[in-house]
Design a protein that fits this description.
Chain B: The system is composed of three essential subunits: KdpA, KdpB and KdpC. The complex is a heterodimer of chains A (about 210) and B (about 550). Chain A has about 210 residues and is mainly alpha-helical. In chain A, about 50% of the residues lie in helices and about 10% in strands. Chain A folds into two domains: about 1-45; about 50-210, no CATH class. Chain A is elongated and about 90 Å long. Chain B has helices spanning about 5-35, 40-50, 60-80, 100-110, 120, 125-155, 165-190, 220-225, 250-270, 275-305, 305-310, 325-335, 350-365, 375-395, 405-435, 445-460, 475-505, 520-554, and strands spanning about 200-205, 210-215, 400, 405. The longest helix of chain B has about 35 residues, at about 520-554. The chains are: A mainly alpha (about 210), B mainly alpha (about 550).
């Protein structure tokens, strides 16, 4: 009995020592080495791909923002996004999805309402949007709630509204969208997309510059 | 080009990349685990541990090493979380409650990476890098070690010796996982993944005001998260979060990374047992199931059945624009057929059948290609069962790789395949029978049941993904899911190592005209059939109540 207790203790000691040594290697040296390289070679991306407009940081090109006025391009809904509930000395963005199933009554309601709003907001005097024109990404929340992009179809759908509200020619706004449309990587990886923050920064420059 | 074609091309690109990479990586791992030379840094580590890396261990000693190391890991990680509030590097975050700290400690040590916490508001730099990320490395290395011990059981004869656990553990980290992760982490940073140790960033917004996000060593953790099939995200949204997975390219890279070691281990197996064709048969079995499941999921997601998705005009709920439906489907299947559990889209909002396939992928035991190490040993257990079934058909003592599958061996294999289904079904039934666990559901009806079935399937199979509407941060779920993870990880390992020991003692039997040729396509077909029938029948009633009911109703 005593013997087996000592053996177990000895074995646990070896396990603990192994863990500590490997912690130094993979939990201290490794992350510090990667951070060193990252900060030296890629400081922009390593610190969050911050993006400036008119001399001020206006966010990260990777993190989608909400609450743009209708004068600007609208992002996707983000019904799964939260605010932090613990360590409330901060106001952290809490990434997340709605996790509602395809037959969930909340989700059905959200999608219907979002669709009606997209149709209403984007129909102008001489341009009527039909519900069947609305792409899926315009009425659904992304996985992170921070999706920085919308589909080119959703950006195109907003062109007439933007042109009317901002007093710009439709063709000019459409060109702006085209210039900010990124195709699939190497032609087949991922999906075509438009970065909403970058597009809106360019739009603001266009409005102020005219 | 349409999205369907783009999805198919991404799948083909992955197949091509894996076909190219698995041979050199598999050969490398075979050399790593067969070499009798120690690197200098490894000798220092052995001195630190106080272990002799050249002592050969029989299966009980090997198992004791696995258990002692893992127990130390749970204890250390538990204490690190409990003390977070008083340790430096916490970002000012408070200590973690006991039930959640237990759940998380167990989760990362068992290579599950189930998360009942929100990373960005809960875990500071110290716990993330020196606690969670360390287990990403070592739990993966433990998995590979156990798989290699089983392979040695097939390769060796008339000895009970399976190798040295400390040596296998250290070599897995030093010669395989660490160098690979270093390279990948730098690539990820170049593509946009963050890597810093600054505190909370306060950043201006376009519309005025500001937003706060936390920095962190994300790229270094992201690399091993996929390579080690761990899957625990730095942020709550996991690989859907743009700071973890910023571009379509990083997305495809992450899918590749979670698949490459499990597929390459079939090569390691082939080389170590002296017949690469045996490795190809196992590889073909894994690849058949993986490609088939991807095709089914893509078909279901592009068809987007289900009321909300029909109104929306596409299955984009819970999916990111940059990945789209095709790449998200490949990611979802790959993460649940390996033991990764990372997500780039949220499975709960998939179509009924698409979500059901992710669940079935885990229920198969995560063997196609499975987790780092656990995929190979799980698949080899199924191969043992398949030759046994074939042996029964022709009335001949079954053998695999020259080793007789006798009463003892088949008992170990049978115990192995019974453990996880028992855990999943008993815990699910208990949660459904009790009054309070159901309060954690976000969705009702069939999908609500699926949330709970998914949770226990994920925990018992050490996957870690979720139908994340389930509020799992309750004492009931933290405790029972924690138990499911421990039992689902270590009980199967007991039987794997016992089987390995029993095989290693045998004298090989010569190949005769009556031997079942396990390197032929016929055997691959038999193995695929055995896997689908055995697990399919075990879980069919539960699946019928959840995803099948939901999928067929829409």
């Amino acid at each position: 009995m005593n013997n087996s207790v000592t053996n177990t203790a000895r074995l646990l000691g070896a396990g603990l020592r192994a863990l500590l040594v490997l912690t130094v290697l993979t939990g201290v040296i490794y992350p510090l080495a990667v951070t060193g390289v990252a900060q030296a070679v890629f400081p922009g991306t390593a610190n969050g791909s911050e993006i400036k407009s008119e001399g001020k940081v206006v966010g990260s090109s990777l993190i989608g923002q909400q609450k743009y006025s209708l004068d600007y391009f609208q992002p996707r809904p983000a019904n799964g996004l939260g605010v932090n509930s613990v360590n409330t000395q901060y106001r952290l963005i809490l990434s997340g999805a709605t996790n509602r199933s395809a037959d969930n009554p909340d989700l059905i309601k959200w999608v219907k309402e979002a669709k009606a709003k997209v149709v209403r907001d984007n129909s102008t005097a001489d341009h009527k949007v039909s519900p069947s024109d609305v792409p899926a990404d315009a009425v659904t929340s992304s996985g992170s709630g921070l999706d920085p992009d919308i589909s080119p179809a959703y950006a195109d759908l907003q062109v007439h509204r933007i042109a009317e509200r901002d007093g710009l020619p439709v063709a000019r706004v459409r060109k702006l969208v085209d210039d900010h449309t990124e195709g699939r990587t190497l032609g087949f990886i991922g999906e075509p997309r438009v970065n909403v923050l970058e597009l809106n920064i360019a739009l603001r420059e266009l409005i102020r510059g005219q | 080009m349409g999205p369907v074609l783009a999805g198919v091309l991404q799948l083909l690109a992955l197949i091509g990349a894996l076909a190219l990479a698995h041979i050199p990586l598999g050969n490398h791992m075979a050399k790593v685990y067969s070499s009798d030379r120690h690197w200098r840094v490894e000798k220092w580590i052995y001195q630190g541990i106080g272990a002799d890396p050249d002592t050969q261990m029989r299966w009980p000693a090997y198992l004791r090493g696995v258990l002692a190391f893992s127990a130390a890991g749970v204890l250390f990680l538990y204490l690190l979380q409990r003390l977070q509030g008083v340790l430096p590097g916490s970002l000012g975050f408070s200590s973690i409650d006991p039930d959640q700290a237990f759940n998380t400690a167990v989760s990362f040590v068992t290579n599950t990476n189930w998360q009942s916490y929100y990373g960005e508001q809960t875990m500071g730099h110290l716990v993330q890098t020196a606690g969670l990320a360390v287990q990403n490395f070592v739990s993966a290395a433990v998995g590979i070690a156990v798989a290699v011990a089983l392979v040695r059981g097939f390769a060796r004869s008339r000895t009970g010796e399976l190798g040295n656990f400390w040596s296998d553990l250290v070599r897995g980290v030093v010669r395989v996982l660490l160098p690979f992760s270093l390279v990948v982490a730098v690539v990820l940073v170049a593509c946009g993944v963050i890597q810093n140790f600054s505190g909370i960033h306060e950043v201006g917004q376009f519309t005025g005001g500001s937003q706060q996000w936390n920095g962190g060593a994300v790229a270094s953790q992201e690399a091993i998260k996929e390579i080690g099939t761990n899957g625990g995200g730095y942020f709550n949204a996991n690989s859907a979060h743009p700071f973890e997975n910023p571009t379509p390219f990083t997305n495809l890279l992450q899918i590749f990374l979670m698949l490459v070691i499990p597929f390459a281990l079939t090569r390691t197996f082939g080389v170590m047992v002296g017949s690469v064709r045996q490795g190809y048969a196992i590889l073909a079995t894994m690849a058949t199931i993986w490609v088939g499941f991807v095709a089914l999921t893509m078909w279901s997601e592009f068809a987007h059945h289900g009321p909300a998705l029909q109104i929306a005009g596409g299955a984009m709920e819970g999916k990111e624009t940059r990945f789209g439906v095709g790449a998200s489907s490949i990611f979802a299947v790959s993460t649940t057929l390996t033991s990764t559990g990372a997500v780039d889209s949220f499975h709960s909002s998939f179509t009924g059948l698409g979500g059901g396939i992710t669940m079935l992928g885990m229920m198969l035991g995560e063997i196609a290609p499975g987790g780092t190490g656990s995929g190979l040993y799980g698949m080899l257990i199924m191969a043992v069962v398949a030759v046994f079934i074939a042996g029964l058909m022709v009335g001949r003592t079954p053998e695999y790789l020259g080793k007789k599958i006798g009463t003892r061996e088949i008992k170990f294999a049978a115990c192995y395949i019974l453990i996880t289904p028992a855990l999943v079904l008993v815990f699910t039934a208990a949660a459904m029978a009790l009054p309070t666990p159901g309060h954690s559901m976000t969705n009702s009806g069939a999908h609500g049941f699926s949330e709970i079935l998914y949770a226990y399937t994920s925990a018992s199979n050490n996957n870690g993904s979720a139908f994340a509407g389930l509020n799992a941060d309750t004492q009931w779920f933290n405790t029972t899911l924690g138990l499911a993870m421990v039992l689902g990880r270590f009980l199967p390992m007991v039987f794997v190592l016992a089987l390995a020991g029993s095989l290693a003692e045998q004298q090989p039997v010569p190949v005769t005209a009556g031997t079942l040729r396990t390197e032929k396509p016929l055997f691959t077909g038999l193995l695929v059939g055995a896997i689908l029938i055995i697990t399919g029948l075990t879980y069919f009633p539960a699946l019928a109540l959840g995803p099948l009911a939901e999928g067929l109703a829409s």
